UniProtKB/TrEMBL annotation:
The lineage of its organism: Bacteria, Bacillati, Bacillota, Clostridia, Peptostreptococcales. SUPFAM superfamilies: ATPase domain of HSP90 chaperone/DNA topoisomerase II/histidine kinase. It catalyses: ATP + protein L-histidine = ADP + protein N-phospho-L-histidine. InterPro entries: DegS, HATPase_C_sf, HATPase_dom, His_kinase_dom, Sensor_HK_TwoCompSys, Sig_transdc_His_kin_sub3_dim/P, Sig_transdc_His_kinase_DegS. Residues 205-388 form the Histidine kinase domain. Its EC number is 2.7.13.3. One of its GO terms (cellular component) is membrane. This is histidine kinase. Residues 31-72, 123-171 form a coiled coil. Gene3D superfamilies: 1.20.5.1930, Histidine kinase-like ATPase, C-terminal domain. Keywords: Coiled coil, Kinase, Transferase, Two-component regulatory system. Pfam families: DegS (PF05384), HATPase_c (PF02518), HisKA_3 (PF07730). One of its GO terms (molecular function) is protein dimerization activity.
């Protein structure tokens, strides 16, 4: 009995609160140290960039010097050949001067070539150090993001600890899911920026350098390259707008949910060649902005599932928004699946597709019903309250 009492005291909400508070304090200290590491790494990257820039300028100047010395060396060798052939025509002083000048140029050239070789090696070493510094900075920033998310989650929930251990475990499970989703979103955005606008900007720099070189050689070719440059910039702007739209469609705030959905459905139909039917049965205003965005995301996820897996030719969407509730139906004529064989691992913490939609609907205290049969398509029926929830 005494052991049971000690165990209950050990896992009481008050004790858990104390443990969490200590954890938050420790994470706060760690967060400051990680931010300091990241800041030092950022400064190191900046300093190395400046040093590399100066070294490249010095290398460029040195290459020009070597080229000039090579020209002088060739001229001096030709002079020596001439003096050797017509030895009798030149005074002894002139012959001596020609030999000494050629020798001095050769020595200077050898020294400059060695200096150039050393500079190239130093530049390569510096580039490796810069790459390593960037990798360290990226790791520090990623760690800072993760610590920040964990800290925000823990700090925001300290006052809301439930009175039972089961409820506490449920909140921790939810917290891990939220952190995972946020990290996945950050990785997705980073990947899209790296593969899209970042690549486009790198191409712009290369094309600009090509245009600069062609200006004095082939004006017509340089005009063609400028046209290519414009196309890359337009594509880059298009990629940036797409990333912004995926983060949050601005039209949701400007023109509302239904017009935004109509635009999205039209674009989806153009991209996939799937016949789309969108029926708006009623459209009372949605009182909760979070639900407004979530409904758009749910339909977006449903259509992406059809695009990736269903092999459908028709999709029918019905939306009914009343003062009290929101009903969504999404039906396709695709290959379907066996709903009995959908298995979720015991330690599953979220995922994509149908499971992702279930998470979204569950977080809004809604209900989702999935009906599907092999070769008979799939139908999603979603119900969400149109009341404003506390805390949103």
């Amino acid at each position: 009995m005494e052991c049971d009492k000690m165990s209950n005291d050990q896992f009481s909400p008050k004790k858990i609160n104390e443990i969490l508070q200590k954890t938050v304090d420790t994470i706060e200290d760690g967060k400051s140290e990680v931010f300091e590491i990241a800041e030092n790494a950022r400064k190191q990257c900046h300093d190395l960039q400046q040093e590399l820039k100066e070294m490249k300028e010095k290398a460029s100047h040195l290459i020009k010097e070597v080229d000039h010395l090579e020209l002088l060396e060739r001229q001096s060798r030709r002079k020596l050949v001439l003096v050797s052939k017509e030895f009798s025509k030149y005074a002894e002083e002139d012959i001596k001067e020609a030999y000494e000048k050629a020798n001095a140029i050769q020595i200077h050239l050898i020294l400059k070539r060695q200096e150039e070789k050393d500079l190239i090696k130093r530049r390569s070493d510096l580039e490796m150090r810069l790459k390593s510094a960037y990798e360290g900075l990226q790791r520090a920033e990623n760690l800072a993001f993760k610590i920040g998310i964990a800290l925000d989650f823990l700090s925001g929930n300290l006052q809301d600890i439930s009175h039972t251990l089961e409820d506490m475990q449920e909140k921790q499970f939810l917290g891990r899911r939220i952190i995972r989703v946020q990290e996945e979103e950050r990785h997705r955005v980073a990947r899209e920026i790296h593969d899209g606008p970042a690549q486009s900007l790198a191409n712009v720099v290369i094309k600009a350098e090509i245009c600069e070189k062609l200006m004095d050689i082939d004006l017509e070719k340089s005009r063609e390259e400028i046209q290519n440059l414009k196309k890359i910039l337009r594509d880059g702007i298009k990629d940036i707008r797409k990333i912004i739209y995926n983060l949050r469609p601005m039209s949701l705030d400007d023109i509302g949910l239904i017009p935004t959905l109509k635009r999205y459905v039209e674009t989806f139909e153009e991209e996939t060649q799937i016949n789309m039917i969108l029926n708006i049965l009623s459209e009372d205003p949605i009182k909760d902005s979070i639900k407004n965005l979530s409904i758009f995301r749910i339909i977006q996820e449903a259509l992406n599932n059809v695009r990736k897996h269903a092999r459908a030719t028709n999709i029918n969407i019905k939306i009914e928004i009343t003062q009290t509730d929101i009903r969504l139906h999404v039906q396709d004529n695709g290959i379907g699946f066996d709903t009995e064989n959908i298995k979720v691992p015991q330690n599953y913490e979220g995922g994509f597709g149908l499971l992702n939609m279930k998470e979204r609907v569950g977080l809004l205290d809604g209900k989702i019903n999935i009906k599907s049969k092999i070769n008979q398509g799939t139908k999603l029926m979603i119900y969400i309250s149109n009341e404003v929830e506390e805390g949103f």
